[in-house]
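User: I'm putting together notes for a lab meeting next week and I want to include a structural view of one of the chains we've been expressing. I don't have a solved structure, so I'd like a prediction I can at least talk through. The sequence is below, exactly as it appears in our construct file.
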Amino acid sequence: MTDLREVRTEAVEDLLKAVYTLQQETDPVPTTVLAKALDISAPSVTDMVKRLADPKNHAPLLDHRPYYGVRLTPLGEKIALEVIRHHRLLELYLSQALGYSWDEVHEEADRLEHVISEQFEDRIAAVLGYPEIDPHGDPIPPRDATGVPVINAIPLTEVPTGEPVTVVRIIDQTEPVLRYLSELGLKPGVSISVLEKSPLNDTVTTAINGVAHTLSATVAHAVLTHAQPPAAHPTESASNE
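Assistant: Thanks for the context. Below is the predicted structure for the 241-residue chain, given as structure tokens.
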């Protein structure tokens, strides 16, 4: 049986990470969808999936059924979450400690996530104060890889007109989109409201820091938000004082 340490190449870790992400929307994950996400050929993905699912080679990291799709085994999920934790901690460290902009950190973290040790990961977490989210609002998996905390949020496209909300997460993390949103000041923690929706133009107009900006529905759908709590009102006894 092959040593699992020999199996954990960068390509394998990238595949497991992609399966975990895609499983949040489609479970099991079709190999064609996985190939598109990884930008490699379908036959190459199928060969890798078969190898990672074969118990003769090592402890299976994937559960694979032809014409059905793939899903992570518990061991595969543990590895995926470990890599995701590395990635998101690195993104935050690069942003906070080294001054990278949030549209620059993804590629750097992609390169580094496979090589840092668990000790180095622990040092980063401690220096950052054991954070729970990365610069884009993505939750950071816990050290024991028990799963990613769920963030209940709705896309900006589904926010009713006039309702104030707080941005909590950006799910499209391509450089052009992040750079554009940064220029608008549209980042996690920012309070905004929807001014107008235009189905014919497929746009959403929002108020960001008091300025109106019109976003395409595609970009707006990638901005996840929380409803803001209602403003506190003084009690009757307090108002009479």
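A couple of points you could mention at the meeting. Residues 4-72 form a domain with the Arc Repressor Mutant, subunit A fold (CATH 1.10.10.10). The chain has three domains: 4-72, 83-150, 154-227.

User: Perfect, that's what I needed.
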